[in-house]
Amino acid sequence: MQIGVIGLGRMGGNIVRRLMRDGHKTVVYDRAADVVSKLSDEGATGASSLSDLVSKLDTPRTVWVMLPAGEITEATITELSSLLSSDDVIIDGGNTFYKDDIRRAKSLREKGIHYVDVGTSGGVWGLERGYCMMIGGDKPVVERIDSVLKTLAPGIGTIERTPHREGFDARAEEGYLHCGPAGAGHFVKMVHNGIEYGIMQAYAEGFDILHNKNSPELPEDERFELNTTDIAEVWRRGSVISSWLLDLTAMSLAQHPTLDNFSGSVSDSGEGRWTINAAIEEAVPAPVLSAALYTRFRSREEHSFAEKMLSAMRFGFGGHVEQKG
Amino acid sequence: MQIGVIGLGRMGGNIVRRLMRDGHKTVVYDRAADVVSKLSDEGATGASSLSDLVSKLDTPRTVWVMLPAGEITEATITELSSLLSSDDVIIDGGNTFYKDDIRRAKSLREKGIHYVDVGTSGGVWGLERGYCMMIGGDKPVVERIDSVLKTLAPGIGTIERTPHREGFDARAEEGYLHCGPAGAGHFVKMVHNGIEYGIMQAYAEGFDILHNKNSPELPEDERFELNTTDIAEVWRRGSVISSWLLDLTAMSLAQHPTLDNFSGSVSDSGEGRWTINAAIEEAVPAPVLSAALYTRFRSREEHSFAEKMLSAMRFGFGGHVEQKG
Amino acid sequence: MQIGVIGLGRMGGNIVRRLMRDGHKTVVYDRAADVVSKLSDEGATGASSLSDLVSKLDTPRTVWVMLPAGEITEATITELSSLLSSDDVIIDGGNTFYKDDIRRAKSLREKGIHYVDVGTSGGVWGLERGYCMMIGGDKPVVERIDSVLKTLAPGIGTIERTPHREGFDARAEEGYLHCGPAGAGHFVKMVHNGIEYGIMQAYAEGFDILHNKNSPELPEDERFELNTTDIAEVWRRGSVISSWLLDLTAMSLAQHPTLDNFSGSVSDSGEGRWTINAAIEEAVPAPVLSAALYTRFRSREEHSFAEKMLSAMRFGFGGHVEQKG
Amino acid sequence: MQIGVIGLGRMGGNIVRRLMRDGHKTVVYDRAADVVSKLSDEGATGASSLSDLVSKLDTPRTVWVMLPAGEITEATITELSSLLSSDDVIIDGGNTFYKDDIRRAKSLREKGIHYVDVGTSGGVWGLERGYCMMIGGDKPVVERIDSVLKTLAPGIGTIERTPHREGFDARAEEGYLHCGPAGAGHFVKMVHNGIEYGIMQAYAEGFDILHNKNSPELPEDERFELNTTDIAEVWRRGSVISSWLLDLTAMSLAQHPTLDNFSGSVSDSGEGRWTINAAIEEAVPAPVLSAALYTRFRSREEHSFAEKMLSAMRFGFGGHVEQKG
């Protein structure tokens, strides 16, 4: 089918490529003219503005917005909504907060415009492996764009099938899922990222314990010099904790066994934070997901006011001097 | 090669089978005579006692002890050590605390007996998939038993290879690794299990947040009825958090979408606890691994004294009544 | 001075009493006529409606709203704002979310009405001990109502003075503080409650460890039967962890050493949740405050979906049966 | 009564002084001859060696060992036990691990020597305020030394009494408590310190949230410049979270509002770690006490291997560059 794509960064560009490879027609726009012309060379129809893009699409139109979340997505969708017509579809494939999806879908519905939110996972590997997609929106609209979703998804591939799935949604096995009404896609993707933080932190703590097993704090006959590179590799093979994140870890360690190429200052994106907020709204305990987030916060600080307060109290009651030299 | 195996439960029995399939000769013993005779029928040489087993092995002997950790393993190895000769090898394939390995190896060394600890992961799937093994012991001894380890390990199989592994231990890619001196194998296995708890808890929290997204505590237009069975499945396909534990989760949910066949009371084994102790000894922060353990503790309680204390304080300062009806 | 008070529950009623004792004139209103007449008997001027209350106050008026946070406070302030005149003052003494204060102050400012938010701590003990108050609002307005605040505050009393406070706000020693513009009072009170949760949980965990020191899981010669009632008492006397919350704990334990009068199901109010949200917004790690909140969430559940998922995974890889009987 | 005191550091010296003030006779020894002669000048009988100290005490002797925990305490008690006679009493007033107390008491009992463990809280303030003491040992022995304990304890003082304490141990109100057999004193003291860590961390996190409320990450109209010095002070006055640790915090902040005199690198002692180990042995969830300990661990590191692993994974799946410049 024909689809417009706005935002041709690493994610958006590869989405266009994966769509074209499978025979879809794309009309593409980005504020950076050079990426537009590059994709035009690869077979896309370039557009010079949002209105140009809209004018080049047959009705009812489908437009995939693939921009960094936040203000620019909001502004683009607002402008788009004034250019589109009733029964057109806007797909937000970015990392939008799901409550914004709910609000937008409601407001666009008044104009007859459909809104679909797609959370995608797969990162820089998506062009090759396909994108795992979690989708929110009205059923008939999600079905209307099914061929696009099917193309972008990984497909069944060689991954072993789960028994007893008769009666469940077959699309899940293809790597895409209609999760519920507008917002549900980004909500599920948000939780996915929350889990991702937790899993990453579980590995990180475990490897830290391995790494420090030669610590001089330990009795000499209880120290080991462990090769974390080989351990990551062996765990990929038949262990309970094999995973794609472990595969990536094994790759990193094989190249940089000490990881000294990394500073240790770790960013976090909105999804990890929103997941905790969601847990709190639902009164669901989420100690692991929270701890994972807090580790990232702490990793970006020198010393916190909190830590200085601890020293201040220790000095207060015990005369323990942890003052600056 | 020829090897004695003591303990023919689910793990031990399948180890014998996997060894025999690959041409190794096994002499087997278990306190339960029926499992001995069953494996004899399958080709093993049965033994009626530890001394019978020892007498049926050529020197230098190799004996794999595969018993539930703790007192019975300790008692068996003590008895074995009085029956074996210098240069024989005892392999402890159970879930022994690594400091016990260090102690035992030292004490057996005085008798000239070699000690090898093997942590195995793979659970009930090991017969078919092979066992991921983490090994501690002296280099020449570990090399002497290499053919046995190679047979038990999963082998390279179809799992994609990690680039840049030139110069690293090739056995890791086969699914087994000599981690260091006695104790190192069980130490690495222990941390593996610690990580396992953390990863499981990360998924569990995330799915709990999905599951409760229809909570009446939430504003009505922010509730979703999410299908966690389908979500587990879609995440297996190209998402960042795909893993073997997720595969298992998807299987469980396909059979029992509500999981109401489980009580929710979750056990923990020594490894999870020892991992936290190890972290503390090394002064390594392990908030996620700890939180995962504590969740299991709490899952087995009705209401804790701690929670009643909270109510008591709330009543004290605020007159909040959380007393029994 | 003269002041209107709306909401005569446990907190509001005692505030009126403490004000009258110190010579202030109060005009009081509550939806429940009987509490109005009760306070009238004690010397207050009763009002039969919001407009009646407004009409009985001299201009510029001061009205203290002391209602449970949320919709009713919002509705009352909205109605009040239509009855009051420019230069009147609305004080919200409840547990309002500070962002609502910021919004309200802005909207009331357009009508010339001043808004002051007062977070109060001290619970049911306030009538006797005075209320610790954290105040947000414009400086001249907070100064205008100073005599009321001074009356409600505990005063210096017999609490030892902190050295080196020359140059700091003297009101802090009286037990009330102008923290900043509108919202700052409730923000500081919110964090106060977050800390309260953390401290309570620290005691609760410690006492739980004492309480379970006779657990049959422990080696027999390492078990103690500890008297937690006496331990709470001795810690009140010269220990580093003496506190008012410990005083309350000692009182509870003296009456009910087993605390079996409490169910163990513990509520949480908005402040604990908002504190975590605030920490996340600021990227401040708050593991203790979060853990305290999550314990309360968990205390109100039977078994969580999360726990069942753990069992499902354990069954998946290890055949561990934690299924219902 | 007469008592020997070994170890005349800050704690031991002040204990001797508090004992002498109340009329007890002390025989004192320290490896540093100058502190012995200083206390001799103040009225103590100096000893030049352990055996000299033993020879100067009337039988049955009572010796208080007040040394930093660990090897030196162990060595001193071992030497003492060869010098003392049946029915003598050794008191360990240091921070000994309670399992060492259990072991020692058992071994000394074979020689007829009594062993009492005393955990003390109160830090550098003890000379003036008295020491809160938690005591383990046999009942008749603890009673034999009661006059010494009573002297060292704070006494009832001006602290309000807890109602309903009829029938409980009256000594608790004096600030000392016989908790149980040998080891019970140090066990209770250990948990006290675990709680102390948790409470300190609760305050630290809360103040950190206050401190960062002017963070540029926040929307401009939601930022406050909060005066944490004044907030600490106001909370001392009638708030639910008033405590001695808060008093100390208020003192520190009054002198150094930014706390920039502290590095933020925070030590931990054995008790915090042992408390977590005890919780794990008992299967008691202790998320807050653990989090408090981990914060201290992290405060002493630059960047952890764990954090670099997070960056490595993020780079692996998302191309996020957190590498060194």
Automatic annotation (TrEMBL), chains A, B, C, D:
The keyword DNA-binding does not apply. Pathway: Carbohydrate degradation; pentose phosphate pathway. Residues 185-324 form the 6-phosphogluconate dehydrogenase C-terminal domain. Keywords: Gluconate utilization, Oxidoreductase. One of its GO terms (biological process) is pentose-phosphate shunt. It is an enzyme of class 1 (oxidoreductase). Its EC number is 1.1.1.44. Transmembrane segments: none annotated. The keyword Oxidoreductase applies. GO terms for molecular function: NADP binding; phosphogluconate dehydrogenase (decarboxylating) activity. InterPro entries: 6-PGluconate_DH-like_C_sf (IPR008927), 6DGDH_YqeC (IPR004849), 6PGD_dom2 (IPR013328), 6PGDH_C (IPR006114), 6PGDH_NADP-bd (IPR006115), NAD(P)-bd_dom_sf (IPR036291), Pgluconate_DH (IPR006183). Belongs to the 6-phosphogluconate dehydrogenase family. PANTHER family: 6-PHOSPHOGLUCONATE DEHYDROGENASE (PTHR11811). This is 6-phosphogluconate dehydrogenase. It comes from Granulibacter bethesdensis (strain ATCC BAA-1260 / CGDNIH1).
